[in-house]
Design goal:
Glycosyltransferase; 16 helices; 3 domains; seven-stranded antiparallel sheet; alpha+beta; ten-stranded mixed sheet; globular
Length: 657
């Protein structure tokens, strides 16, 4: 059931349910995710009618669909996270609720296989009339992934049968369409390939390939987009009219929404004229949805960042199954293009608010850093796929940066609040929220943290690859032999790592250890004997030997506070620097620096920064201390931890002298 070896991948990952996270940093967050975030998200999904929409569609409750056309996807992502939890922890109350929701989804499915609560209770005749703007296939993709998560968690095919039936119906629809169609919000592309891997039914792989190959081949693209946009408005108006009539006839039902009703309208009303022009142009040209260029011809990543990341995940999966080298070449080129010119220091992507997406190279203004939390997650899971394909260390390095910075900043320390977008400078207006009308980020974070173990180990014919130094106890299989691994780490606060092996008999194989790109000075010993080979930052070091039971590898990746100066091609950051420590990016919060304005000060480069671990500050963090130009002392905290004490000024990039 967990065949993770793909025909064209160099590596195969070790699934998270074979790994018990034990380190203080991530084990604590998994516990909070399990005990606080997931239960609270369920309450929010209930309050905002996500679950009631399925009760209505299933015919077990009188009502109408409330909320947005993408609401189903948020519930599916939450289910996926819950199923991940079940692998490692028993929770009868949560399991009871999950079973109820699965039962509703089963009942909501129509006889032909269709499942979507926005359409089925109101105007089924309008379904599948607008793939670019409506999110039917996006929702279907998340349904498929939730179904696979259930199957892997407990062997149940209840939701998997729903997903297969729906996928079969979608395939039938596409076979009968004369004109090429594509998804506007990619997701189903990778989900279909995941379904193919579980069921071995090649039709799902072929449908995914068709959806990917159709991009850039829509004739009369601008006219096509305009027609679909007008149809989109028509559908939304029809839904509004339907609900108004229903509410008049049923005035005593609850129609309240917890999420902010006007947040979408507010989002667009806050755009500058220039941002609105870019938004309209990007939509009309199909760039926002990655419709304008065939995938194999993409040079410069464009459009909505989350959609692009999900598309590239699907393309990577397609390569893993087909070995189409042109696809891999394109993915490598795009990834490098993003990292070199379109990525913020945190790993965040997306510098145009209007399209939640990419700007021109090096246009990375800090106040314009949109850096959606979901985009960080999309970048993470795409990089993870490239890591499995190639075994190249740079992808694991980026995954580390994303985990500790661009993703984690979107999640409050207490597990109750979130950021949707993540600026690198704040004037004090930003505040974390418990929920959003567009609630994609909270359950997305939940499913990543619940399945965190996926990103630690991989296997190859030669041996074991260790990508992330997250403390854990695990059991892996190499050539039908079981190997126990105990990894102890105090990342990200210090770089001491111990890896102890458990074997039933001596075995010869390689262990590949990532040397983090940020680490200049490091040491490695095996059973106390120093390794004298090269330990090159940003590379894996291969240790091949005849391993025996209780062999011990010890690593010390020196962590020192550094002031990193910006690439001069980023105009807004010229003359500025950012503080870092190990894998962490740091910022200054006004709360910690009350004697001066953090937005109007300079940090001398020529000084020795100090570090101090503060166990009672922000759930335990290492702070960086130094002085500004007038010798006033400053304190910097990890970027992920900002805004956990309420709104305040914050800055990542600081003037340096």
């Amino acid at each position: 059931m967990d065949d993770n070896k793909r025909p064209y991948n160099k590596l195969s990952y070790v699934p998270f349910f074979k790994i018990k996270i034990t380190d203080d940093f991530w084990a604590t967050r998994q516990k909070i995710n399990r005990e606080v975030s997931i239960p609270r998200q369920l309450e929010q999904l209930e309050e905002d009618h996500h679950i009631d929409n399925f009760r209505v569609a299933a015919g077990v409750k009188h009502g109408t669909h409330l909320g947005e056309f993408y609401f189903d996807s948020d519930l599916y992502k939450w289910l996926e996270a819950a199923f991940y939890v079940f692998h490692m922890h028993k929770d009868n109350n949560l399991e009871k609720k999950v079973n109820e929701i699965v039962d509703l989804i089963v009942k909501a499915q129509l006889k032909d296989g269709y499942v979507n609560t926005f359409y089925s209770p109101r105007f089924i005749e309008k379904r599948f009339t607008n793939f670019p703007f409506m999110h039917e296939l996006y929702c279907a993709g998340h349904l498929i992934q939730a179904a696979i998560a259930q199957y892997k968690a407990n062997g149940s095919k209840e939701l998997l049968k729903v997903a297969e039936k729906f996928a079969n119906f979608i395939a039938k629809v596409f076979r009968n369409k004369k004109d090429k169609e594509v998804t506007g919000h990619e997701e189903i592309e990778m989900a279909l390939i995941e379904l193919f891997r579980i069921t071995k039914k090649r039709d799902y792989l072929l449908l995914s390939r068709e959806l990917i190959n159709n991009r850039g081949h829509i004739s009369g693209l601008t006219a096509y987009v305009i027609r679909k946009y007008l149809n989109f408005n028509h559908i939304l108006k029809a839904a509004k009219r339907f609900n108004e009539i229903f509410k008049k006839g049923n005035p005593n039902l609850d129609y309240s929404m917890h999420g902010e009703k006007d947040e979408v309208a507010d989002f667009y009303s806050d755009l500058t004229l220039n941002e609105k022009i870019k938004f309209i142009f990007s939509i009309l040209k199909g760039k926002c949805f990655q419709l304008n260029i065939p995938v194999r011809e993409i040079i410069d990543p464009e459009g909505h960042a989350v959609r692009a990341m999900y598309l590239f995940c699907g393309v990577a999966d397609l390569y893993s199954e087909t070995g189409d080298q042109l696809l891999l070449n394109v993915l490598k080129r795009i990834w490098l293009k993003i990292v070199k010119g379109k990525m913020y220091i945190s790993g965040g992507i997306g510098s145009i608010k209007g399209i939640e997406g990419f700007e021109k190279d090096f246009k990375l203004r800090n106040e314009k850093s949109y850096s959606e939390t979901c985009a960080a997650i999309g970048f993470l899971i795409w990089s993870w796929r490239l890591l499995q394909i190639t075994g190249h260390c740079k992808y694991a390095d980026l995954i580390e940066r994303l985990l500790y910075n661009a993703m984690l900043v979107g999640y409050s320390i207490d597990g109750r609040k979130y950021f949707y977008s993540n600026p690198l400078v704040s004037y004090g207006q930003e505040e974390r929220k418990e929920w959003f009308l567009c609630a994609c980020c909270p359950p997305n974070v939940a499913r990543i943290i619940a399945s965190l173990g996926n990103y630690i180990y991989s296997m190859s014919e030669k041996g074991i690859w260790i990508h992330q130094y997250i403390g854990n106890e695990s059991q892996v299989t190499l050539h039908n032999n079981t190997i126990k691994i105990e990894l102890k780490s105090n990342f990200p606060w210090n770089g001491m790592v111990k890896i102890k092996l458990g074997l039933d008999k001596n075995r010869n194989f390689s262990i590949f250890l990532r040397v983090p790109q940020w680490c200049i000075n490091n040491t490695l010993t095996v059973n106390g004997k120093k390794y004298y080979g090269p330990l090159t930052p940003g590379k894996y070091v291969e240790i091949i030997r005849n391993w025996i039971d209780k062999d011990l590898i010890e690593l010390n990746f020196e962590m020192v506070p550094r002031l990193l100066e910006s690439d001069p091609r980023i105009k807004s950051n010229r003359g500025k620097g950012v503080l870092s420590y190990g894998p962490l990016i740091y910022c200054l919060e006004q709360k910690d620096n009350k004697n001066f304005d953090i937005l109007n000060m300079k940090i001398p480069k020529d000084q020795d920064f100090e570090i101090s671990y503060e166990p009672n500050l922000l759930d335990g963090i290492t702070i960086i201390k130094g002085h500004i130009s007038d010798k006033e002392k400053f304190i910097a905290i990890p970027y992920y931890a900002w805004n956990n004490r309420g709104p305040t000024k914050m800055q990542v990039w600081n003037e340096v002298i």
